[in-house]
Amino acid sequence: MSSIGDTAATFCATLVDEWIRQGVRHAMVAPGSRSTPLAVALAHRDEIEVHIFHDERSASFAALGIALAQGRPAILLCTSGTAATHFHGAVVEAHQSNVPIIVCTADRPPELRDVGAPQTIDQTKLFGSAVRWSHDPGVPSDDARGSWRALAARSYAESLGARPGPVHLNLPFREPLVGNVQELPVARDGAWSQTFHAQGVDQSVIATIAAQVTDKTGIVIAGRGATRDVLSVAKALNWPVFADPRSGLRECDESVVLAFDSIVRVSQFVSAHTPDVVLWIGEPPASKVLTQWVSNLDAFKIHISSTPSVIDPQHSNNLSVNGDVGLMCERLIPLVRASSKEWLLSWQKSETAAQKAIAAWTAENFSEPTVARVLTSSLAVGEQLVISSSMPIRDVEWFGSVTSGVTVHSNRGANGIDGVVSTAVGVALGSGSPTSLLIGDVALLHDVNGLLALNRRTLDMSIVVTNNDGGSIFSFLPQAEHLDRATFELLYGTPHGVSFEHVAKTYGLSYFCATDEESLRDALAQSGTKIVEVVLDRTVNVSQHDELNSSIAAAVIATA
User: Fold this and answer.
1) Is the backbone of residue 293 left (phi > 0), alpha (psi -120 to 50) or beta?
2) Which residue stretches of the chain have pLDDT < 50?
3) Are 311 and 227 in a shared domain?
4) H or E stretch including 13?
5) Which residues lie below 8 Å from residue 77, measured CB to CB, with a gap of 6+?
6) What pLDDT, on a 0 to 100 scale, did the predictor assign at position 12?
7) How far apart are CA 560 and CA 268, in angstroms?
8) Which residues fall within 8 angstroms of residue 454, CB to CB, at 6 or more apart?
9) Which of 104, 207, 85 minimizes the C-alpha distance to 152?
10) Residue 428's domain spans which residues?
11) CATH assignment of the domain containing 304
12) Looking at the structure, do residues 11 and 152 belong to the same domain, yes or no?
């Protein structure tokens, strides 16, 4: 384990190394103590010319001038406290004039804030809306080494987006402020590139993507924000598409793999099917297994999104591109050449085997995966499906079979379980279409008063609640193994003992209880607004999922 000083020194050396890789050649430094780790890292690299200014205001406008002359950002660095405020005039000018600057303000660590420590002010988001991006990564930690290069690369790219401008990194450091630089995290191939064109797409970025995917084996991961054009790209490359329920692409298409979470758990299969490239479109699926597998791959990783948000929680992207997804796909197709058809055929065989195994197991075992599969397969074209976070979204993603033409919604921005009932009511009101909600018991209790909105409204809405008397997702986490049963139940299991028949009566809703697949399908066939309660045993949920995944693994291995 590195010392505090060594970690800070290595963190700053990594930032500087990556900035140099990206193209930074100048740094404007106003002297101060707290900024020592970064100032020293800058001074130790010959590739960057360090300019010292006694006054922060002069330093900031000089950084603006360098960017005006060169078209790329300089580093602007100061110590903590009022020093940072003297940058504001130049930051505003850079904002208004679309001039790139990477503004770095050193800061005191959290324990010295709001306790009267000298040279300490609130520097978080100090420059407000005048910066293109603002971030405080916290005190440097060895545990976060994997994010250091991404932080530097992103700051550079954000400053040079479709609308160039200043970015702000607030960097807190603990004493000691000097240390020895340890081995730097390995630099990734490629660069962090972002385009924010609403209508057009940078053709050079398209060419970069084409060069990376042509004649390569790969996978496409499609989440919310993907378009049907993604399927055309996959066909042109002979790549499988891992389609999230919210992608709108879970249909009978030869490229689509639905059981991706279960398949990537099969080590015998994935060890022989390592992709060269991962093309990630839109928001990420819920599958942690998939995310970790992708993160650990020695593959070139590209993320494309139609929104300016960056999605890279594992800090493993080689290329991040923001722009019109459909247009990018359209421009990309003529530039690519396909890999061998055998690559896609092997994924197709695994998908077919997995789906047969899921169908067979769920037909014999009434469980949470069974509920997800029955509900999703019962929906018709034009209907709406709202899925709660926690277990429901995972069970639908892993084992569901959403009909093409069904629109799927889920609050996966913050991934909370609050307000899910009200969200579903809004979807039903806004769409005017039959709407189904799959929700857990705890999530429904979080928003039980959302049922009031159904009063005196004529909606065709099915609320399917899996009632296992508590939070079943926690049983999949390490806490379940490390805590005694009583403590686990108190803190995580959180049994409530609520009968949703009584809830339905309270709010004047029709109520059905499903105890098997037949009664569930019968309840779903009833018109009008209703609560369908499925009472399940939380204590066997983990073992049922394990058993199902084992069945899938056996089927996939048998076809490999």
Assistant:
1) alpha
2) 197-198
3) yes
4) helix 4-22
5) 27, 28, 29, 30, 35, 38, 39, 42, 104, 105, 106
6) 98
7) 9
8) 425, 461, 507, 509, 529
9) 104
10) 368-535
11) 3.40.50.1220
12) yes
Domain assignment of residue 489, yes or no: yes
DSSP 8-state class, residue 471: -
354, 555 contact by CB (below 8 A): yes
Answer yes or no: do 315 and 386 share one domain.
no
Q: Confirm whether 558 is domain-assigned.
A: no
Number of domains within the chain: 3
Q: Are 245 and 224 in contact (CB under 8 A)?
A: no
- Quick check: is 408 in a domain? yes
Query: pTM of the predicted model, to two decimals?
Result: 0.83
CA distance 199 to 205: 15
Looking at the structure, do residues 45 and 132 belong to the same domain, yes or no? Answer: yes
- DSSP code, position 202: -
**Residue range 390-447, pLDDT digits in tens:** 999 999 999 998 878 899 999 988 888 999 999 999 999 999 999 999 999 999 999 9
Contact 237, 319 (CB under 8 A): no
Domain holding 74: CATH number?
3.40.50.970
CA distance 175 to 182: 17
Look at residue 431 and tell me if it is in a domain: yes
